[in-house]
Fold this protein.
Amino acid sequence: MPNALSAKELRRAFDPARFSFKTTKELKPLDKIVGQDRAVAAIRFGIGIEKKGYNLFAMGPEQTGKYQVIRQFLEQAAQKEPTPSDWCYVNNFADDKKPEALELPAGKAVTLRERMSGFIEELKVAIPAAFESDDYRTRRKAIEEHFKEEHEKVFRGVQEAAREREIALIRTPMGLGLAPMKNGEVLNPEQFGRLDEKERERIENEMQELQEPLQEAFARVPQLEKEEREQIRQLNREVTTLAVRHLIKEIARDYESLPEVIAHLDAVRDDVVENAATFVLSSGQAGEAQGMPGMPGGPMVDPAFFHRYEVNVLVDHSKTEGAPVVFEDHPTLANLIGRIEHQAQFGALITDFTLIRPGALHLANGGYLILDARKLLTQPFSWESLKRALNAGCIRIESAGEMLSLVSTVSIEPERIPLNLKIVLLGEPMIYYLLSSYDQEFSKLFKVVADFDDRFENTEDNHETYARLLTTLIERNELRPFDAGAVARVFDESIRMTGDQEKLTAFTEDLSDLLREADHWAGEAGRDTVAAEDVTRAVEEEIFRVGRIRDRMQEQIVRETLLIDTSGSAVGQINGLAVYQLGQFSFGKPNRITASVRMGRGGIVDIEREAKLGGNIHSKGVLILTGYLNSKYVPNHPITLSASIVFEQSYGGVDGDSASTAETCALISALADIPINQELAITGSLNQHGHVQAIGGVNEKIEGFFDICKARGLSGKQGVIIPQANVKHLMLRPDVVEAAGKGEFHIYPVSTADEALEILTGKEAGERSKSGKFPRGSINYAVEKTLEKFSERARDFNRPEKPGAKAAGKKSGKKSKHESAGEEPAR
Amino acid sequence: MSEPHAPFRRLLLALETTGQDEAFFRSAAELAANLGIELSGLLVEDEDLMRMGELPVARQFNVLEGSLRPFAPGSLEREVRSELAQTRERLSRACERLGIPHSLRSVRGRPGLVIEEAAEEADLLVVAGNARPLSRRLEIRSTTLGAALTSRRSVLVLQRGGFSTSDWLVPYDGSEPSKRALTVALRLAGRDGREITALLPAENNEALRKEVLAALPESGVRAQFITISPSTADALAALLRRVPRGTLVLGAGSSLLDGESADRLIAAAPGAVLLVRGG
C-alpha cells in the first residue's frame, strides 16, 4: 500500500533566498523574447522570406502575451527596413469616378497636399488678376471690335446693295423690314400707288434680289460668332496658362522624378485653364467671366468645385521611421480595406476622391499588419476581403453594401493600390486548425505558423529570466517594485496556474493581473515595495470575490443537504472529486458515487448516461471500467452482472473520465461487499489494465475535499487518493500543506486501482496466483467469488426445467428459480 | 425738385421702337435719382417704319428663317403698340424702384425732327447707343443716337458697358469744351464723393494737372491722372479699351471729336459716354 506524500511533495514553494536580488528594481527588464524559441524562429523566418503567401499565424492560447511578443519583434525588425511610400488619391480629370492613386516617397504626400492647396489659393488671385490686366482687356476688346466690324461689314454690304436699289432696310421690333424709298424716305401708300406696274414689278424684283445677300449675311453671323468665341477662348487659355504655368512649374520642380505626379500636375494645369471662369467668378468678378471657358451655369461658384485640385493623403509616413507596424483591433471591412464616405446634399448621397479613407492595409502597406484572427473572422466580409487583397496583391476599396448590391448610390471606384506587406494573425490553435481544414486559401496565404507555448520550463536556469519577465510586466504596468519574497510568491502562483511543478505560466495577462492586484494591496498597506503577503492577499481576495458559488456548495455539504460522508465506511459508496470552472475561477467539490450490483445480463449501467446527464468522455470511462472488470475477473466465465453507477445528487451533468477509478472502486466494493473508508476521496482515470492515469485540476480537487473535512474537523485520517502521475502537478494551498505536515490530512499517490482499493478498504487487493486464483480474503477474491456465484445462478436459470417440476411448483405455489431471480437480492 | 447744383435739370429719355433693355432704364433711372429730377420718356415712332407697314410691297426679313415675307396687315402697328407697352412697363419698374417721378409719351414722325423739337424742353438727352441687336455682335446704331448727336443738348449715350456714377473719365486739355466736361463730371461725381480720372495730354501735363486739382476742392472729389500720348482720338480710343469701367465725359467741340471720331470713341468706351454741350 503506497504511503502518503510528504508535505514537501505537495507544493514546490520558492525560497526567496535563492534569488540574487532584493527587489525587482535591481533587475533589468527583458530586451528579448524568452521561452518561445519555436515561435521566434518561425517569426524570424516569416519576416525574412520575401515571397508571396508567407504571412504568419501566431498560434497560442489567449493571454500568453503573443501580441506584445509579436509587436516587439516586428518593431525591432521594422526599424531596419526602409520606410514605405506615402499614398494619396487625386482627382482623375478624365473620369472623376475613378480617382487616381499617387505613390510618393515617404513624407512627400503631405507636402504635395500643402503645395496644391497653396497653389489653388494663389490661382484664385492670379487668374482674376490676369484677366484684369490691361494687356488682356486690350486684346479682348480688339477681338470684340474686330468681330463687331466684321459683322457690320457684312451688314453694311447688304445695306449698300439696298441703298443702290432705293430700298430702305429698317430695324423693326421683330427683325428687319424692306420698303421702297425715294429721297431717303420710305414711300407712303399714295406715292407707291402712283407708280406704274412696271416700276412696282421692278421694286418687287429688287427686293427679292436682296433676299440672297441677306441670307448670306445672316448665315455668316453665327460663323463669325463662333470664330470670335474661339479666339476669346484661345486668348483666355493663353492668359490662364501664363498665370498657371510658372506656379505649377514651381511645384513640378520638386517632383521631377515622379512621372505620375508630373502627369497629374499637367492634368491640373489643363483643367484650371478650362475652368478659368470659375476662378474669376470666385473672386466676385462675374462680369469678367462672361464668355470665358468653363463659365458655370449659375452666378454662384460652388465652393466644392475647388476640391477637385486637392490631394487626399491616405498614408503619410512623414513621421514613420522604418517600416510601419500596425495593429488593427477592430478589423471591420471598412477599418481593414478603407472606405468611401458620402455626404448628403439636397437629399442625395454624393462622394468624391476627398472622401476616401484609408484602412489598416493602407497604413501597414510596406510593413506589418497584426490582426486578431477571431475578430477578423467574426467581422462580415473582412476575412474574404483580406484574402482577396493578398491574392490580388492590391487594395480595392469596396463597401459591404456594394458587395451585396444593396446600395445603388452613385459612388467612385478608386484606383487600386499595390499591396506589399506581411500579415500576422493572432489566434488560438483551434482557429488555426479549423482554417487549415476548411479554408483552402488559408494555407496558401499563411504558410508560416508561429506556435506560442503557454508555459516555460521551471528550471534554475530560467528563474532569473522569469524574474526579469515579471520586472518587464511590473515596469510596463508602472507598479511598485516587488521584493524577492513577493517574486517567489508570484512564482508559486505561476506554477499553480500551469498546474505543474515543472512549469511556469506564459500567460502574461494573468500574471499582469496578479502583479497589479498585489501592487494595489501593497498600496493599501502603505508599502513602497510589494511584499509576499500582498501577493497572497491578491490571490485570496480574488478567490473571495469570485468564490460565492464554491462557498454555497461547501455549505450545503457541511449542512448535509448534499450528502458527503467524511467519516465511517460504506459498501458501494465512494467520494469522487469534480472540478467546477466558473469564469476564470475553478474549484473542487466532492461527489458521492454509488454502485449497486446484482445478477443479470444488463452489464454496467451508467445512470448519468441513461439520464443524458453524462458526457461522452464520462461514458467512455464507464465502458473502460467494464472492460477492466471483464478482463480481470472470471476469465473463464461470461460475466453475468447487472450493475448501476451514479453520481448522487448530481443534476447538472457530468463529463470527463477522472471519476472512472472512483467508479471502479465503488463497483468493486459493491461486488466484494467490502466497505470503503469515507474519510477518503479519490480521483483518477482508469485504463483497461487497471492503471490509474493523470487527471486535471488535482490541486482544486484535493483542496475541495480538504475544505469540507476541515469544516467538519480534521480527523487525522482524512485524505485524497490521486494518480501517481499527478504528483508533479501538486501545488497545494499552504493550509493544506500545513495540515499534511502535521499528519492531519493525507495525499496518497496510486498507480493502480488495486493500490487505491487497498487504501480505501484497508484490505489486501490480492494478485492472481500461478494457479489462477486470487488469495482468499483479498478484495479481488471476494469480487471473483461474487461474479462466479452470479454466473452459476444464471446457468441454473438457463437450464431446461425437468418435466413435472413446473406443475409441482404451480401446485405447491412455490416460485420457480427463474421467477424468483427478479426478486432475489443482489447477493 | 432738382438739386441746387445739379448739372442737369430736365432729362429726356429718347426711346425708339426697336426696344431698350432693362439695364438701359435702370441706368437712366439711377442718373435721374442722382440728380433728383423727373425722368421723361419720349418714344419716337419712326415715320418710315410705320409707313412700311402700310405698303403692300414691303417685306419683313425673318432672321431665323432667312426669308422675305410680306407684312401681315396691321402686324407692324401691333408690334409697335406692344413695344410701347413694354417700354412703359420697364420705365415704370426702373423708376418706381428708386421712387422717381416719370412720364412717357409717344410721338410719330422723323426721329431727328421729333427729338430736335423735344430737346427744347430738356437739357440732357439720354439715348441708347444701339438698337436691339440682331445678333450678339450685329448691332445697328439707334436712330435716336444719330438724332441726339446732332441736337444742341447734352447727350448721354448708354450702351452695353452700363453707366456708372462712381467712375468718370474726363479727357482734359485745358480747352473750353474740356473745362465744361470737367465741371459737369465733378458735379456729377461729387454727388457721391467719388473720384474722377483725368486723361491728360503729355504736353503741358503738369500745368493741366494743377488746373484739375485746383477745380477739385469745391466738389470734394479726388482725382487720378492718366497721360494720353499722343493726344489724339485714336490714342484715347486705345486707352479706353484698357479701362475696365467708367463713363467718358467729353465736351462738344473738343478737338478729339472731329470727323468720325465720335463713333470710334463711343465704340471704344467701356461704358456710357456723356457729350456735354452748352454753357
